[in-house]
Amino acid sequence: MQIDVINPATKRVVETLNRSNVEEVNDAVATALQSFETWRQKTSEERGVVLHAIADGIEASATELANLIVSEQGKPLPVAMMEVGGAVAWTRYNADLSQKPEVLEDSEERRVEVHRLPLGVVASITPWNWPLMIAIWHIMPALKAGNSVVVKPSSNTPLSTIKLVDIVCEVEPGLLGFVLGGKVAGEALVTHPDVKKLVFTGSTPTGTHLASLIAKDLKKVTLELGGNDAGIVLANADIDKLASKIYMSAFINMGQTCAALKRLYVHRSKYDALCNALVDMAKAEVVGNGMEEGVTFGPVQNKNQYDLVTSMIRQARDSGSEVIAPELPEGLDGYFIAPTIIKNPPLELSVVCDEQFGPVLPVIPYDDVKEVMKDAIHKEFALGGSVWGEESDELDWVVEQLDSGTVWINNHAEVLPHIPFGGNKLSGLGVEFGVEGFLENTRRKVVSYSKK
Ligand code: NAP
């Protein structure tokens, strides 16, 4: 069985690749295990030097990587360049992390240290929205900690990951391998006895299924899953100052970002002003093929996502909600959906209750923030949340109420290499980024010297 990689802006096949069979998965794990045996012997500083060389390689291939991302994922070239820039930044951050033993006690009686050791071969399974960046998020902390990695990219967007594997292996052969395909390759990889950890980013059903497959072996697991992030705009919010940030938080990467703003609750006194500003920004987008100069807004990545998001928009229109979107330019033949604002949607609509993961934002007016928080806090998901407004007791109260892994104030969807990021409830397990995320790629060994 083969994989056709489709350009979502043209629906044309960019490249056809073979899915990996179980034997090829076993070979990839065996190569990674062999590489692990020498890689683990290196000091943390030596591994840091290698990661900086990999970052240099990514920088040297930035244009090629960005072109691959546009052709397989659809985002505009400047956003793809930003993704490559993020990949470099995360790689260099991990390169510089130190891995010295932590001294817990050094008294007359004893000296106790915590050592952090690598796990072995780590399996990484990635989605199609930020294919290079999310692969880097998985791979670089795992490598820095002394592990080797086998990555399984989404079948929709494998090309930039394959190029990344080339770059890494040019610096350190065998350290990073890849396998291709969904269930067969993916499940053979995560259940392989020599794989000691799974780091997965994708949908909640797939993530929980894979976690259940490896639970009996007590393998480590980090899951970054779906979300349905709410933003609350308070009555005292400065709309002129914040509207463009709110727009970007929702429509970044055509809304296909796990931690994007997906439901916006706005105090009625600011509702029309904010909706008008969001609609103006949507109208200013240049929708088209991400390779064309001047294009600011690309297609969604695949047909399933296109069908899902357009059906949610249709349902909203049928419900009598006001659906506002600019006309698409003529002559486009890809999975294009214009940035869409939905005013006054009923709260039970799918576009409000379920994750859209696409370029549509339901905007819901409210009068009483205490009441609206009952809807804003999602029963199942808790990845990110935000509150927009001036400092006040009300703002503090909303921050306290939100139960997500991250709460942003006057911002949303900002992720940084040194700040831990992860979801609560069905949005995830464990954490990525920062020292905390790095440590998820290690096992702890407590070393206790008795001095008496
Ligand atoms: P998905 O269908 O769960 O796929 C994610 C990955 O899992 C792909 O590589 C896929 O491979 C693989 N996969 C699917 N079934 C598998 C199986 N049985 N065994 C092993 N691997 C399997 O999710 P998606 O559609 O790519 O991504 C969209 C979802 O991801 C959204 O819900 C979004 O919220 C979430 N997401 C979360 C974050 C976060 O950080 N929290 C970030 C990005 C996306 P194939 O492509 O070959 O099927």
TrEMBL record:
InterPro entries for the chain: Ald_DH/histidinol_DH (IPR016161), Ald_DH_C (IPR016163), Ald_DH_CS_CYS (IPR016160), Ald_DH_CS_GLU (IPR029510), Ald_DH_N (IPR016162), Aldehyde_DH_dom (IPR015590), LUC3-like (IPR044086)
Gene3D superfamilies (UniProt xref): Aldehyde Dehydrogenase, Chain A, domain 1, Aldehyde Dehydrogenase, Chain A, domain 2
Protein name per the record: Aldehyde dehydrogenase family protein
Superkingdom, taxonomy of origin: Bacteria
PROSITE patterns: ALDEHYDE_DEHYDR_CYS, ALDEHYDE_DEHYDR_GLU
Protein family: Belongs to the aldehyde dehydrogenase family.
Residue span, Aldehyde dehydrogenase domain: 2-447
Source organism: Marinomonas arenicola
Keywords (A to Z) from UniProt: Oxidoreductase
Active site: E224
PANTHER family reported in the protein's UniProt record: ALDEHYDE DEHYDROGENASE-RELATED (PTHR11699)
